[in-house]
Design a protein that fits this description.
Elements lengths: L3 E7 L3 H12 L4 E4 L29 E5 L4 E5 L12 E2 L17 H15 L11 H12 L6 E2 L2 E2 L10 E2 L5 E2 L24 H7 L3 E3 L2 E8 L5 E9 L2 E14 L3 H14 L20 E6 L16 E6 L1 E7 L7 H7 L15 E7 L6 E4 L6 E4 L6 H17 L3 E4 L1 H6 L3 E2 L29 E3 L14 H20 L38 E14 L7 H11 L2 E10 L2 H6 L4 E10 L8 E13 L5 E11 L5 E11 L6 H6 E8 L7 E8 L2 H7 L4 E3 L4 H25 L7
Parallel strand pairs: 1-2, 1-13, 2-10, 4-21, 13-22
Antiparallel strand pairs: 3-4, 5-7, 6-15, 8-9, 11-12, 12-13, 14-17, 14-20, 15-16, 16-17, 18-19, 23-24, 23-30, 23-31, 24-25, 25-26, 26-27, 27-28, 28-29, 29-30
Helix pairs in contact: 1-4, 1-9, 2-9
Length: 734
């Protein structure tokens, strides 16, 4: 690492690789800093019984998991960024994606030449017909059986097909072999059959003398008095952790949407080195509508351990727009997948055959945010599941249709199924482009408003979900932006990437699909959901000595005037799934007011969890469970954790059992946090009468279906009360 460069690039993913390559080709001195390590052929971890080498939190491994309570995030860490563990897919969003929220000058038409350039650099192609895995052929058959053949495609992949194990030199001088269809794309390709960035863009960057430093993480950027910026970093190796810095006239932040946003947030709000960054920093965050689903015990031929990870796409375009793709995993992941199977039909056999994996991506609202608590300094991601439920519900329903057509049983990842917390591998936004600082963090070239020479070029600048795998769009946007930047820097208005002349127009599979006027046919069983609003009031005592003495804490709080109240909407997003699930889960959103924890106006609670009539192991007892997260006035995360003890307490008090919530406040966002307040809140009769008027059925305008939905809910509710209070009571049972 030298003392100074013309340009410093932070991160080596799709944006950083493009920036480093083109800047070096234009003759500038380039320093590239990557926090992860460089992986040669055969060096990716393969011991599935240990964490060594896998997780960033465990000795700086390959995969960085960020478990936020409203969104679970998966990132890569290594030279090549997300290309090391992504599923190789390169698709272009339909033109309407660019119609709203993007800066002037952006459209599919203006980006198409740069998509073509990215396609040339990454050698994208569908799986050849003579190499189609069984899962690909089966899903093509399923799409036809569902009447969706016109919306089915084989996406372009950045994979080197051909004879496995046979060495060849690619056009950039890197050694590669043909794909052996092992299903291991998502854990790093040890055969270098994936066209990862270290084998093309980064290979060229180093050929043009870009100076690469790995295992080096940037923690601060500050303007220099004489112009340019000073980049502070920490590096590690055999000698331990060392700190250093380097200077550059221009700095390109390309660490990925979440990490780039975090770095700039800390520079603005924590270190104070970049105080003039737009207030839009952290906004327009998107998980790209990611949803993970499974089909277990498929009867048609299907093996998720054979072929590249993703080989097919099925587009759904009716109210919501998304694409459902097949997934895959290596044999070593079978034990993990087995844990997700709730059918109970399988033993210790491999979970590749008969198990289908689906990844859906869609146009979510991009209405999330990334923030750093001013009190704790912790990063948080806020995601509004409720407003994105129409998309998620449609994805669930199509996945269910496909699973049924395979002869299997649909399943979902536990975080979504139990808590309605999405898992995303496609983080976007946070540093969104806009036409001015009031509408974005950067301009259309990625330059940060108020900071000339400071750029963001990664998924963080995308102001909206792409709805398809975003790597192709990130690459194309970076190509377009860096071309404009270099032209301005050199004064050469005709400068272009040397490879641009060789890049021919590429046929995009999604662009060739036929979408009927008015949208595709609906799913077989559209989701019907039900919601109601609940208000409860009571008393919670802070720092009460005995957390299990709810009545004592309630009395102490009442004497002290320490009140508690919440108003929440409970949404059962798919009524049939809710009724059939053992724990009867719902999603909650609303407001909490607790003396000593929130201000007088209360605090919002989002993406809480409600469970109705959870079995306890005793046939004569159920519990209603509440877990309502909120941020206190002190900036720290808390949860209201409560239960209603639904059983006969000896006086047939159905009302008391269903209206009394034994409550604690816990630190953090889980039921494992320390208890910091205790008491009881209750539904009062006037509020209950009002609650009965708030029931709403969603997902249908048909009066009969609405009546049926209410009847099914009522039957389950009253039937459970009958079972608990009458059928199990020897003095009352008939």
């Amino acid at each position: 690492m030298r003392a100074s460069y013309d340009a410093v690039v932070i991160g080596s993913g799709f944006g950083g690789a493009v920036a480093a390559c083109r800047l070096a080709q234009a003759g500038f001195s380039v320093g590239l800093l990557e926090r992860g390590r460089r992986y040669g052929r055969g060096e990716f971890p393969r011991d599935f019984d240990k964490l060594d080498g896998w997780l960033w939190g465990n000795d700086h491994g390959l995969v960085d998991l960020k478990p936020f309570h409203q969104m679970q995030i998966v990132q890569a860490a290594g030279y090549g960024g997300g290309s090391l563990i992504y599923a190789n897919v390169h698709l272009r969003p339909p033109p309407e994606v660019f119609a709203g929220g993007w800066p002037a000058g952006y459209s599919r038409a203006t980006l198409d030449p740069y998509y073509d350039l990215a396609a040339y650099m990454l050698d994208i192609t569908p799986v050849p017909e003579n190499e189609l895995p069984a899962k690909t052929r089966t899903l093509r058959q399923v799409a036809a059986s569902l009447g969706r053949a016109d919306q089915f495609c084989l996406p372009n992949l950045a994979v080197s097909f051909g004879a496995p194990g046979v060495e060849r030199t690619n056009k950039f001088g890197a050694q590669q072999t043909g794909c052996n269809h092992c299903g291991g794309c998502i854990i790093g390709c040890n055969d270098h059959a994936k066209n990862t960035l270290d084998l093309n863009y980064l290979k060229l960057a180093e050929a043009y003398l870009a100076d690469v430093t790995t295992q080096c993480e940037v923690w601060s950027i500050a303007p220099n008095d004489g112009g340019g910026y000073r980049v502070h970093f920490r590096s590690w190796g055999p000698g331990g952790v060392q700190e250093g810095y380097t200077d550059a006239q221009r700095v390109f932040v390309c660490a990925g949407a979440v990490s780039s946003t975090e770095l700039l947030l800390r520079c603005r709000d924590q270190w104070g080195t970049l105080p003039k960054i737009s207030a839009q920093l952290g906004e327009k965050y998107s998980g790209n509508g990611d949803l993970l689903a499974f089909a277990f015990d498929a009867k048609l031929p299907f093996d998720s351990c054979q072929g590249p990870t993703i080989t097919t796409g099925l587009v759904y375009d009716k109210e919501s727009w998304f694409i459902l793709q097949d997934g895959g995993f290596p044999d070593g992941f079978s034990n993990l997948v087995r844990l997700l199977d709730r059918t109970g039909h399988r033993g210790a056999q491999t979970y590749g055959p008969g198990t289908a994996v689906f990844l859906a991506m869609g146009r979510d609202q991009a209405n999330g945010s990334i923030a750093i608590s001013p009190l704790t300094g912790e990063l948080s991601v806020h995601w509004d599941v409720s407003s994105n439920l129409p998309l998620y519900d449609a994805q669930e329903q199509l996945a269910s249709d496909v699973a049924r057509a395979l002869g299997g049983t649909v399943g979902y990842d536990p975080l979504w199924r139990l808590l309605h917390v999405p898992v995303t591998v496609h983080n976007l936004g946070g540093c969104a482009m806009g036409d001015d600082a009031a509408h974005g963090v950067t301009d259309g070239t990625g330059q940060v408003y108020n900071y000339p020479g400071l750029y963001v070029l990664d998924g963080g600048v995308l102001p909206a979900a792409t709805g398809v795998n975003p790597s192709h769009t990130i690459t194309a946007v970076a190509e377009r932006a860096i071309e404009q930047i270099i032209r301005g820097w050199t004064g050469d208005a005709r400068w272009q990437a040397p490879e641009k002349a060789a890049a021919l127009p590429i046929v995009d599979p999604v662009s060739q699909l036929k979408i009927p006027k008015g949208g595709v046919m609906p799913t077989t069983t559209p989701p019907i959901s039900l919601s109601l609003t609940e208000n409860m009031k009571g008393f919670l005592m802070k720092s009460y000595a005995d957390a299990s003495d709810f009545a004592g804490a309630e009395k102490a709080a009442q004497d002290a005037g320490a009140t508690a109240e919440y108003t929440i909407e409970i949404n059962f997003t798919n009524l049939d799934q809710f009724l059939n699930a053992e724990t009867h889960p719902g999603v909650t959103n609303g407001t909490i007011r607790v003396t000593g924890f929130t201000g007088p106006d209360g605090a919002p609670t989002r993406n809480g969890v409600f469970n109705l009539f959870v079995p306890t192991g005793n046939a004569s007892e159920r519990r209603m469970l509440y877990l309502l997260p909120f941020t206190g006035a002190d900036g720290k995360p808390y949860v209201l954790d409560g239960f209603k003890d639904v059983k006969d307490h000896g006086w047939f008090d159905v009302w008391g059992a269903t209206s009394t919530l034994y409550t604690v406040i816990r630190e953090g966002s889980t039921r494992d946090g320390n208890v910091v307040a205790t008491g009881i809140v209750k539904i009062h009769l006037p509020d209950f009468m009002k609650q009965m008027t708030t029931f709403r059925v969603h997902g249908t305008d048909d009066a009969g279906q609405k009546a049926s939905a209410m009847a099914r809910f009522g039957k389950m509710f009253l039937g459970t009360l009958w079972s608990v209070f009458v059928a199990q009571n020897p003095n009352l049972a008939l």
